[in-house]
């Protein structure tokens, strides 16, 4: 069953944040378990972002979270946020076109 995680955060340092995501992609090549990631910026609140991260399953998401590279970069990402990111963990129960 597909698993989706929403990561919601506030930052004024989006360019640095994007650099850390790129660094994570390079560091986890061949190890990461995510299927895809979308990065969104709120049109009404320019410092508000939401990342939508899709995994094949909850177990794969947890395995991805345990990667040393994920742990290291997520701490650095937290440092760029105005406050701790909010995580919403969703089991996909239906998909429609």
Task: Give a quick precis of the structure.
This protein has 97 residues and is of the alpha+beta class. 36% of the residues lie in helices and 29% in strands. The chain has one domain: Alpha-Beta Plaits (2-Layer Sandwich), CATH 3.30.70.100.
Account of the protein in words:
It is a single chain. By secondary structure, the chain is α+β, with helices and mostly antiparallel strands. It has a single domain, classed as Alpha-Beta Plaits (2-Layer Sandwich). It has helices at 14-27, 58-65, 68-80; strands spanning 3-10, 36-41, 48-55, 86-91. Strands 2-3-1-4 form a 4-stranded antiparallel β-sheet. A hairpin with a 6-residue loop joins β2 (36-41) and β3 (48-55). α1 (14-27) packs antiparallel against α3. The longest helix is centred in the first third of the chain and has 14 residues, at 14-27. It starts with a strand and ends in a 6-residue tail after the last strand. The mean pLDDT is 95.
């Amino acid at each position: 069953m597909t698993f989706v995680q929403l990561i919601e955060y506030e930052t004024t340092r989006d360019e640095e944040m994007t650099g850390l995501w790129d660094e994570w992609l390079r560091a986890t090549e061949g190890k990461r378990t995510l299927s895809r990631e979308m990065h969104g910026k709120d049109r009404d609140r320019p410092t508000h972002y939401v990342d939508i991260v899709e995994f094949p399953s909850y177990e794969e998401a947890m395995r991805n979270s345990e990667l040393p590279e994920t742990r290291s970069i997520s701490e650095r990402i937290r440092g760029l946020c105005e406050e701790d990111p909010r995580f919403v963990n969703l089991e996909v129960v239906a998909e429609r076109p």
